[in-house]
Design brief:
Layout (H helix, E strand, L loop, with lengths): L5 E4 L8 E4 L4 H10 L21 H15 L4 E3 L5 H5 L3 E3 L9 E4 L19 H17 L5 E6 L1 H7 L4 H11 L1 H24 L4 E5 L11 H7 L1 H9 L8 E4 L16 E4 L9 H7 L3 E6 L10 H15 L4 E5 L9 H13 L2
Parallel strand pairs: 3-6, 6-7, 7-8, 8-9, 9-10, 10-11
Antiparallel strand pairs: 1-2, 4-5
Length: about 350
């Protein structure tokens, strides 16, 4: 936050502090918010896929910048195609020609436990990774420092599940069948992702949006299992970008394991507060020193509800947090079919409190 943005004058202990705050830059607003400082208004961010345009660095960057500019967002969370990790490890992917549907995985590299031994470290600046790094450079040039931007990085467990035929459930079978081979594969993936995350920051990103995807939930993993197969590799990737200005942890799904990750070295946390079994914004604010991002359901009401319902959830989130250490957003990526009026409703609530 610039020294010119906020001025505080305290007359005596019984008179409230007077804050005269000029308009902040987007960067000042976001960084101040996650620190818990007073800001001129609550920052807002949304993100989602453009399934048609996310197949080349130029198109990914253009789609990202257009979405940012259309909604005048405060924080840009880059939302690349989720398959680029799988492509890096040799999976075959069929792009989608439907703007409402993602790509199809046609083949994966891991079929049986023995295949885990061939999951190697991948060059973090080649192939699909190189394409993403190029997109980040273009996004940084387009933003010209106007707003912070962060790149999505999946956890090693998430990547392993996605390069395995049969997905997460098959990986769980491998954990029982050959735990050492699972750890060997996770080690190679974590090494790759740590180097890749570091490179993302080197080319201009302000940090990473670290996503546990389907693994950070009691629906799939016990706390004990996550401590063995998730946490050590999460921390290795996050350690690689510890000096970045803005790292966010995103914990997906209902019944999530967020409460066992509150000590992760990140600046802010994002999760779906409306999913069953998940903690609320206020609860996590009280238990951690991190900013919180979210408050609005990404499906209901953002995609399927009314603007009034979006406004109601936004106001509830602001009431629960007091608008401090908070960025208004959805609990996950929003659908390409999200009505424009619902995004407008969320923005209006945040900006009405300036």
């Amino acid at each position: 936050m610039s020294t010119q943005a906020t001025h505080c004058l305290t007359l005596d202990s019984e008179v409230p502090t007077l804050k005269l705050m000029a308009d902040m830059t987007k960067r000042e607003r976001v960084e101040g918010a996650v620190r818990g400082d007073a800001v001129d208004r609550v920052p807002v961010s949304f993100w989602g896929h453009d399934y048609i345009r996310e197949w080349a660095s130029e198109d990914t960057a253009a789609a990202t910048l257009e979405f940012y500019e259309r909604w005048d967002l405060d924080l840009v969370k880059v939302n690349p195609r989720a398959t680029y990790y799988m492509e890096a490890w040799g999976c075959q992917v069929q792009p989608s020609d439907d703007p409402a549907e993602g790509p199809t995985i046609t083949s994966c590299g891991v079929d049986v436990a023995a295949d885990l031994l061939y999951v190697d470290i991948v060059d973090p600046a080649a192939g699909a990774f190189a394409e993403q790094l190029s997109a980040l450079q273009l996004i940084g040039e387009g933003l010209s420092g106007g707003a912070p931007f962060i790149q999505t990085v999946f956890s090693p467990l998430s990547v392993l599940g996605r390069i395995t035929e049969g997905g997460a459930q098959k990986v769980k079978e491998f954990m029982e069948e050959d735990s050492a081979a699972v750890h060997q594969a996770l080690d190679a993936i974590a090494e790759t992702l740590a180097a890749y995350a570091r490179t993302c920051v080197e080319v201009g990103a302000d940090g990473i949006f670290y996503a546990t995807v389907e693994w950070g939930t009691r629906n799939l993993m016990t706390s004990e299992a996550y401590l063995e197969y998730g946490r050590p590799y999460d921390l290795r990737v996050l350690a690689a970008v510890r000096g970045a200005p803005l790292n966010v942890l995103h914990v997906c799904r209902s019944n999530n394991l967020l409460e066992m990750m509150l000590d992760y070295p990140v600046h802010a946390l994002n999760w779906d507060i409306h999913a069953a079994g998940n903690p609320g914004l206020g609860d996590i604010r009280e238990r951690s020193n991190k900013g919180v991002i979210g408050g609005i359901g990404q499906e209901q009401p953002m995609k399927t509800g009314s603007a009034d319902e979006v406004s109601s959830q936004a106001r509830e989130a602001l009431d629960e947090t007091g608008g401090r250490a908070f960025i208004l957003s959805a609990g996950c990526s929003i659908s390409p079919q999200t009505p424009a009026e619902n995004i407008e409703a969320a923005l209006a609530v945040a900006r009405s409190l300036a």
